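TA notes, week 10

Several of you asked for a full example with nothing omitted. So below is the full record: structure tokens for the whole chain, then the designed sequence directly under it. When grading your own attempts, check the secondary structure regions first.
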């Protein structure tokens, strides 16, 4: 097995380098599908959230970024403005009602309204299986990951209704389809977002307000640093992903830009699995019958889950 992994290393490295050079560069984005739109993106000062804010801005939207820490907001706003994008920012802890109110008022005052909400914030304060989770950790996970997503959507709704239509996107995870063994409660919270998407989309469809969800696979963020601990771990991880590489944040942002644009005007209530699919074999050797909901990237969590889950949990608490 390891000989096979080693023999594919050169090809995998070539693929990764090519993608890093060419993937979704700002100069390659010619579409301006979001001109005249205003977008609010939570937890958007780094990683997937930052990439989404950047891409929506490149597509012509005016963007409000936010984070729990003001210094992170200031840095992100400066970087995005330096890139020529029309951006503003404000500190917002999504579990704080006053912060949420200030976030939406800031967007309306600065840019005149809100057309798009991207709910990206999440936490995971505790490692372990779902039935091992403490009540306090369970409450915090569901308060931020689920309840706050619902509250953000509900509180943004009056502003979106004023625009006679708009779009809401929840950022979930492949863990919502195939739970991670050491991120049990977190995985369940991400599954809940699928139901929230379905229910809200049905209620709002007649008002021309679309609600969709994105479930990213393994993405090259700080979290993915655990996958680079050794050459063996790195190649083992990549061998489980059909495309031979980890996703870049800009690949998630491109999907989001599509979903909130008029190109997706007839799409609502959907969860987009942003990860290459393959058949995953269970630990006891049988083929997973739900292959359409299984990815090569998810299976690696059974191999290095103790490394990834620990780092993932720490990073979510720091975001």
């Amino acid at each position: 097995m390891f000989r096979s992994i080693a023999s594919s290393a050169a090809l995998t490295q070539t693929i990764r380098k090519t993608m890093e050079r060419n993937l979704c560069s700002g100069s390659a984005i010619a579409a301006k599908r979001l001109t005249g739109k205003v977008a609010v993106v939570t937890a958007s000062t780094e990683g997937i959230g930052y990439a989404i804010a950047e891409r929506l801005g490149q597509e012509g939207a005016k963007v409000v970024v936010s984070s729990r820490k003001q210094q992170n907001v200031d840095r992100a706003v400066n970087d995005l403005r330096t890139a020529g994008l029309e951006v503003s920012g404000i500190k917002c802890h999504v579990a704080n009602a006053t912060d949420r109110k200030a976030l939406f008022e800031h967007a309306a005052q600065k840019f005149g309204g809100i057309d798009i909400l991207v709910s990206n914030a999440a936490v995971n304060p505790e490692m372990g299986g779902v039935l091992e989770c403490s009540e306090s950790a369970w409450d915090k996970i569901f308060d931020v990951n689920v309840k706050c997503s619902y509250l953000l959507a509900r509180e943004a709704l009056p502003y979106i209704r004023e625009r006679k239509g708009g779009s809401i996107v929840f950022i979930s995870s492949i863990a919502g389809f195939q739970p991670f063994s050491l991120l049990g409660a977190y995985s369940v919270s991400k599954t809940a977002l699928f139901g929230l998407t379905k229910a809200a989309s049905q209620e709002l469809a007649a008002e021309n307000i679309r609600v969709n969800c994105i479930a990213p696979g393994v993405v090259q963020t700080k979290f993915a640093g655990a996958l680079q601990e050794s050459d063996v771990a790195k190649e083992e991880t990549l061998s489980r992903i059909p495309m031979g590489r980890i996703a870049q944040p800009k690949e998630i942002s491109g999907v989001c830009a599509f979903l909130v644009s008029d190109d997706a005007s007839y799409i609502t209530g959907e969860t987009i699995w942003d990860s290459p699919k393959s058949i995953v074999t269970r630990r006891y050797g049988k083929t997973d019958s739900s292959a359409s909901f299984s990815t090569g990237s998810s299976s690696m969590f059974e191999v290095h889950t103790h490394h990834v889950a620990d780092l993932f949990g720490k990073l979510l608490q720091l975001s």
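Residues 135-162 form the longest helix (28 residues). Use that as a sanity check on your answer.
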